[in-house]
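User: Thanks for the earlier help. One more: Xanthine dehydrogenase accessory factor. Can you show the sequence and predicted structure together?

Assistant: Of course, both are below.
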Amino acid sequence: MNREPWYEALARLQRDGMPHVVATQVTSQGSTPREPGARMIITPDRVYDTLGGGTFEWQVIAAARDNLAAGKAGMQLEAFSLGGRSGQCCGGFVNVILETWPGSEVRLALFGAGHVGRHIAHLVEPLDWRLDWYDSRDDGFAELPDASPRQHRHTMPDPQAAVDGLASHSHLLILTHDHAEDYALVDAALKRGDCASIGLIGSRSKWVSFRRRLEAAGHTAEAISTVRCPIGDSGGNKAPYAVALSAVAELQPICTRLDDKNLKRGEGRGIDGASLRSLFN
């Protein structure tokens, strides 16, 4: 058991979008280890606080982790007879509510805090996504309001190290102020091989140049084809907000279509009205 109190662990896990279960003792009869209202937080590999220990607590932990492994979400009531199901000598009876939160399924890594990057960060804020936002400039995030709980800002000294530190199956949007930095990020992402999607801002001529360099660096044509460049389709409108809006509208169905990783523009379904409504509601 960790020393961090359950309420601090809960705030941190919610902020970071990590999977967890809140176990709350809601009723008790007879002799029981804890009182109604006692809580503990359970993650796939850690436990915060306690419902009293013993076999009963291990059964609660096992039930919670079964839910997390199965990707379940929501609330369920579990009943424990401490002299029966749990085999404990106190002989009481306990009801526990398990509130399972599977975590944010979408991890977006946004590289670049210029005008387009700032609009993208604002547009995705209402979505249940974790945003890891990187910029190599010391003042990249200057004059921005405080970050929302699911937004994490990072100064990026090295593109390779930043990409290596991402969670598996992250979606990447690359739109820094520097073409050399953009290339280094795409190269690092393709070397990882487990990115859910890679989007790169720029013109078609920029992508022709990048593609040749990536081929010369030894990346396969199949791997290179997973990169979307240019991102979005703003209909020729180059205003930063228009570019950001089209990029997010393109990315949203890619992120929610779990069976179509590395989707490229032109494949599968287009963006329908329901997808766009989910972006703004």
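User: Great, one quick takeaway?

Assistant: The first strand starts at residue 20 and ends at 29.
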